[in-house]
Amino acid sequence: MIGNQAQKLEKLVAASSQKKKSKKTRFIAITSGKGGVGKSTISSNLAYTLSKQGLNVGIFDADIGLANLDVMFNVKIKKNILHVLKGEATVSDILIPITRNLILIPGESGDEILKYSDMALFERFMQEAQVLDKLDVMIIDTGAGIGEHIQMFLNAADDVIVVTVPDPAAITDAYATIKTIATLRDDVSMIMNQVKSEKEALGVFEKIKKVANANIGSQLDLQLIGKINADIKVSSSVKQRALFTTLYPASQPSKDIDAIVNKIAQKLERNVLVTSNESGLSGLFKRLMDHF
């Protein structure tokens, strides 16, 4: 039944796509093998730092059940995307401006998103979602683990970044996640969080890469996109409901985020003008339908 529904939605998405030219949004999914490794902290600080560079950024909270981006940004969320799809709110109602260039989009899990039945409401949603077509980048903060609805977002993204810490259990979970992602795509990036140094980050990454090459194969392009040093300032900022990049801009973790953002910005520069069905929130939904 949901398969038939998805087919109808695909046609609807295609029909509602405008032929105007628009900036292509780069979709970056940030995930982890287990909770508690700093995934949402990194997602929120990356989104803020990207927006500080003048880019239009959306951050989509898809970590359902443990959604905490409202805590990171110190805002209150009353309704999310499911309320829009049920006709209980408009897209504009749920969007939360964080800064001039940064918008928080309270999300829902992929399987919930596809369980609505009203085609007229969905069509209205696709029209309303065009207010986000100007986004340069959308960070998708997924749940931990590798459930089916998380795989939908990982499949739809341009880039997938796995966050882990140098803890044996976390490393094992991160590898298991990478192994599953490798069945969906052949490129995965990693961020090593809470490390003592660049040397430690590289050491842990090389071990993961060695095991991946031996068991998954060399066709997997596994890259270390950056590291974040362990620092009490990070946990201190979370307790204060603030971003460490705003409270402690000169700290090493903030410099580490800057270095990761510079790598992401280089990829963004290669994006070209495309039709708007590759843009914003409607573009994300188009991709979710394609991979359903």
Condensed summary:
The chain is α/β, with parallel strands linked by helices and 292 residues long. It has helices spanning 2-16, 39-52, 69-73, 81-85, 91-94, 110-113, 119-128, 148-156, 168-181, 198-215, 232-239, 244-247, 252-269, 280-290; strands spanning 21-23, 26-32, 57-62, 96-99, 102-106, 137-144, 159-164, 187-195, 221-229, 273-275.
Structural class: alpha/beta
Percentage of residues in DSSP E strands: 15-25%
State the order of secondary-structure elements, H for helix, E for strand.
HEEHEHHHEEHHEHEHEHEHHHEH
Give a short account of the largest sheet. 8 strands, mixed
Which stretches are poorly predicted, pLDDT < 50 over at least 5 residues? 16-21, 272-276
Separation of termini?
Answer: 13 Å
State the CATH class. Answer: Alpha Beta
Roughly how much helix do the residues carry, as a percent range? 40-55%
Corresponding CATH architecture: 3-Layer(aba) Sandwich
Report the radius of gyration as a whole number of Å: 18 Å
Domain count: the total is 1
Q: What name does the CATH topology carry? A: Rossmann fold
Output the keywords:
292 residues; alpha/beta; Rossmann fold; eight-stranded mixed beta sheet; two-stranded antiparallel ribbon; 10 strands; 48% helix
Describe the structure.
Pfam families: ParA (PF10609). This is Cobyrinic acid ac-diamide synthase. The protein is of the alpha/beta class and 292 residues long. The protein has a single domain (27-290), classed as Rossmann fold (3-Layer(aba) Sandwich). It is 48% helix and 21% strand. It has helices at residues 2-16, 39-52, 69-73, 81-85, 91-94, 110-113, 119-128, 148-156, 168-181, 198-215, 232-239, 244-247, 252-269, 280-290; strands at residues 21-23, 26-32, 57-62, 96-99, 102-106, 137-144, 159-164, 187-195, 221-229, 273-275. The strands form two sheets. Strands 4-5-3-6-2-7-8-9 form an eight-stranded mixed sheet, with helices on both faces. The protein has a two-stranded antiparallel ribbon with strand order 1-10. Helix 1 (2-16) packs across helix 7.
